[in-house]
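Issue 218. Parser rejects a valid record. Input:
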Amino acid sequence: MWILPLVGYLGSVMGFCFLTLAIASGLYYLSELVEEHTVLAKRFLSRLIYSIMGLQLVLCVVDSFPFSLTLLSIVSHLVYLGNMRRFPYVKLSDPLFLASCVLVLLNHYVWFKHFSDHQDRAYQNMASYYDTPSDIPSFTEIASYFGICVWLVPFALFVSLSASDNVLPTMGSSEPLGSGPGAGGSGQGVVSSSGSGRSRRGQGMAKALVDNVLGGIGQVGDAFGWKKPDERLA
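Output the parser choked on:
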């Protein structure tokens, strides 16, 4: 067979493209929701962080999860919580933000190593090759743990937080957006430009990422001479 494998490759590429577009659209929509409901999003994320820390303690006590790794996860979520100080704005050079990025990768590595070593020990202790160890978690359980306890909060913060670089500053003022008296505890971070009363909000990092990718695709299209329909008519 010659044609069918090519059809399979083409279908895989198209499926990957559609999946990427679906994820980008979801990130864009979630970022828009956070921009419209900042106070509600901050309350939800704070309660989510506390809930996951409580879940970590329950897993440590009931299912005998390692105390050291559990402590690392709880400390990591406390660091994530520190990024909520000026929600939804964050400075990319903030030590808490940089520590959060490092802790995400560290948590993923140590928990992946824990489950991998636990599975290896379970198979080594089998009396027969045909035995099936019953004390190892399934793939669904491990994936669910990573999705909820390791990646959920960092992903939610990525969608919700707005980098200071994506925030338009006020005219004649160098004060970071979201730290002035106008931001207050509401987290709206609305600023006016030149006293004209026009308000601007920060752009979420996920939304900025999607816009940059779309902008890059547009630049590539312009380089190859591809034009939009309205530009062709002009």
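Fixed in the parser; the record now loads. The two ends are 48 Å apart (CA to CA).
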